[in-house]
Design goal:
Radius of gyration: 18 Å
Number of strands: 10
CATH superfamily: Thiamin diphosphate (ThDP)-binding fold, Pyr/PP domains
Structural class: alpha/beta
Number of helices: 12
Number of domains: 1
Largest sheet: 8 strands, mixed
CATH architecture: 3-Layer(aba) Sandwich
Shape: globular
Length: 307
């Protein structure tokens, strides 16, 4: 794993961007761009990042950006790749940076087509569990029990298993990441940049305004997602996959923290605890955590120690 002395000092996320304090998205993008380097083009659909980048004619990002409609990010990226290849330029990282609304829901058809065509690009979904930019409405990524502006008493359904949907498309590289573990995130983006073909990285992106926790707790909340086993860090190249180091000890359910330790600090899960504890729903969510691990092993088989 990379060490802090290996991280480039050059910054691609600049002062003056419009990110909220404690934004997990911007933290993840900062380290991702350090791994990808200057020869990167971001394709950004409607999402928080399209606002964070700042307003025309200024930009808070030090790489080229192509803004596109909610549904078309992967299709637009395919066009960028084709244009670069027509010019003989094969050393540029074309990266979609999209939220869960534009990935799990509105943009999934374009993503499916781009992977099926074998497009040489990296698709990144930063998952803050809601349509945060448009008013914190529920998305297909919103977990059970979470309060949003369209689920006032808490969402009643579990989130989509997006990673398994993507895995069925057989991308050449697939991984999950979390800005609370920046070295792991950096390593995965560096590795992805060196592989040709369709690649997908799914990032948990804690969001203070939508998740309702103090802005200084973003890293803490991200780590609790891993320590409770709710967010599994892993990586897959071809048919081989591995559980990433921060998640390895949590393969054993006995070593995971209770899911309540992740849920309770977030105001969005207040309906689970007030006016009285919803024991039945908390038990179901805890069982869902265990089920997600089981389904990952069923889909991928036994992990290797190292890719």
């Amino acid at each position: 794993m990379v060490s802090i002395k290996d991280i480039p000092r050059e910054e691609f996320i600049l002062p003056g961007n419009a990110a909220c304090a404690g934004c997990g998205d911007t933290l993840a993008l900062r380290h991702a761009l350090k791994a990808l380097g200057k020869k990167t083009i971001l394709v950004i659909p409607a999402c928080c990042t399209s606002v964070i980048q700042a307003l025309f004619p200024y930009s808070g990002f030090n790489v080229p950006i192509y803004n596109t409609a909610f549904a078309s990010a992967a299709a637009a990226a395919s066009g960028v790749v084709a244009g670069l290849e027509a010019q003989g330029k094969t050393d540029t990282n074309v990266v979609v940076w999209a939220g869960d609304g534009g990935t799990f829901d509105i943009g999934i058809q374009a993503l499916s087509g781009a992977i099926e065509r074998g497009t040489n690009f990296l698709y990144v979904c930063y998952n803050n569990n809601v349509y945060s930019n448009t008013g914190v409405q529920r998305s297909g990524a919103t977990p059970m029990g979470a309060k949003t502006t369209t689920t006032w008493t808490g969402k009643q359904e579990h989130e989509k298993l997006f990673d398994l949907i993507v895995a069925a498309h057989r991308p050449v590289y697939q991984a999950t990441a979390n800005p609370s573990y920046p070295f792991d995130l950096y390593d995965k983006f560096k590795r992805a940049s060196q592989i040709k073909g369709p690649k997908v990285i799914h990032i948990l992106s804690p969001c203070p305004p939508a998740w309702q926790y103090p802005v200084q707790d973003t890293v803490k909340i991200g780590k609790l997602a891993v320590e409770t086993g709710d967010w599994i860090l892993w990586e897959r190249i071809g048919e081989k996959w591995t559980i990433s180091r921060p998640s390895r000890k949590y393969r054993d359910p006995a070593k995971r923290k209770p899911i309540e330790e992740y849920l309770k600090p977030q105001g969005r899960f207040a309906p689970l605890f007030r006016p009285k504890r919803d024991e039945e729903k908390l038990k179901e969510i805890q069982e869902w955590v265990n089920k997600k691990w089981e389904l990952l092993f069923q889909a991928f088989g036994e992990p290797v120690d190292k890719l």
